[in-house]
Amino acid sequence: MKPGERLPPDDPREWIRRARSNLALARSRQADVYLEDLCFEAQQAAEKAVKTVLLHRGIEPPRTHDLGRLLSALEESGEAVPADVKAAVELTPFAVIGRYPGPLRAITEEEYEQAVVLAERTVAWAAERIGEAEPDEEG
């Protein structure tokens, strides 16, 4: 695939690439960036990764940010979801709270680091499930 080339929106490979893009953003710590914003990117990475596997299985992903609901849809389709991927449900609140100013307390460094780990595991699992190697591993 050429740089900047996009695949059709129903192609799981496009979804995993978008998930990896969100994951890269989640990892991009900068002094002026709120950890809440990076946790949102981690949630988006995990959400798109789970939707990748749904698409790979021929299932139209529900329009939701609820990782529990998405993972349940996968399991209902017969997909075995490992416990470390199921733990990504912890990221669901980051899809909404924290995206805008409001009553949310500041995210801690530990919470941020855990969010990135959960997203990394979910993206790696989804990529493996669809046979899409990490970019640095490709031929």
Can you walk through the features of this model?
- With 139 residues, the protein is an all-alpha fold.
- The protein is 53% helix and 0% strand.
- The mean pLDDT is 92.
Keywords:
0% strand, globular, mainly alpha, 139 residues
Mean pLDDT over the residues: 92
Helix content: 40-55%
Number of beta-strand segments: 0
Distance between the termini: 12 Å
Helices, by number, come to: 5
Kindly estimate the percentage of residues that lie in beta strands according to DSSP.
Answer: under 5%
Major β-sheet profile: none
Unreliable residue stretches: none
Radius of gyration: 15 Å
Q: Which sequence of SSEs, written as H and E, runs from N to C?
A: HHHHH
* SSE-based structural type: mainly alpha
Give the overall shape. globular
List the helices and strands and how they pair.
Layout: H1 12-27, H2 35-56, H3 67-76, H4 83-86, H5 109-130
Concise overview:
The protein has helices at residues 12-27, 35-56, 67-76, 83-86, 109-130. It is mostly helical.
